[in-house]
Design goal:
Layout lengths: L2 E4 L9 H14 L6 H5 L6 H11 L6 H19 L11 H10 L4 E4 L5 H8 L7 E3 L12 H10 L6 E5 L2 H9 L3 E5 L9 E3 L7 H13 L1
Parallel strand pairs: 1-2, 1-4, 2-3, 4-5, 5-6
Length: 219
């Protein structure tokens, strides 16, 4: 293990409710049906793909200009809510795990599809804690495409098979597997394909990750 790559939303911090409220406000304005069940389908994918899903579920077709305008509306609504973020929004176990990995000289990265990654990290005070950040501003293909994770590995000059990905969404797990990386799933939901599932990062450590990764290789 030479690099640990963290997804951002749902792993480092949870902004799911902010996303939901922004999509809900946008949908209401444009007379689109949107609810929590539909919101669950948006986890781990890019903003553009999210809007496509909402429009498809509503059998609504819009032209490219209106599509771009709706994306901008949603992002503005979401960014307003991000101003509420503080260090208190960091999810359980994150600071301790980052500290533990640093003490063992393991570099850490952010691999996120979000274009708001810099603002989120700044809001929670973790902008300087990662060796490399690859987000929606620097990729062409969002998860489940492995591009975001492979770029993290390339930037650190580390082979994909020596990387560990921590993810909370199926699209992210699929991306990690496509990148030939060890995938740890986080949350209450079972994520098929994950090499290991945990409820949160509180009991995760350098030692436990390494032991589980080695054990998986020999199973």
């Amino acid at each position: 293990m030479e690099l640990v790559i963290f997804d951002l939303d749902g792993v480092i911090v949870s902004t799911d409710q902010y996303h939901y409220e922004a999509w809900k406000a946008l949908s209401d304005k444009h007379n689109l049906l949107f609810n929590y069940e539909m919101n669950h389908m948006l986890r781990g994918v890019s903003r553009g793909e999210c809007l496509k899903i909402i429009l498809d579920l509503n059998s609504r077709i819009v032209d490219s200009i209106e599509f771009a305008q709706m994306l901008e509306e949603k992002n503005n609504l979401y960014k307003e809510k991000l101003n509420q973020l503080t260090e208190k929004d960091i999810l359980p176990g994150v600071p301790a795990l980052l500290k533990d990995l640093k003490e063992h000289n393991i570099p850490v990265a952010i691999g996120s599809s979000s274009k708001n990654t810099p603002a989120i990290l700044k809001g929670i005070g973790l902008s300087e804690n990662f060796d490399v950040i690859v987000d929606g501003n620097s990729i062409i293909n969002s998860k489940p495409d492995p591009e975001v994770f492979l770029k993290c590995a390339v930037k650190m000059n580390i082979s994909p098979e020596k990387c560990v990905v921590i993810e909370d969404a199926k699209a992210g797990i699929d991306a990690a597997l496509a990148a030939d990386m060890y995938a740890i799933g986080v949350g209450e939901e079972n994520l098929p394909g994950a090499h290991k599932m945990i409820k949160n990062l509180k009991n995760l450590s350098y030692k436990s990750i390494l032991e589980d990764k080695v054990r998986t290789q020999y199973e």
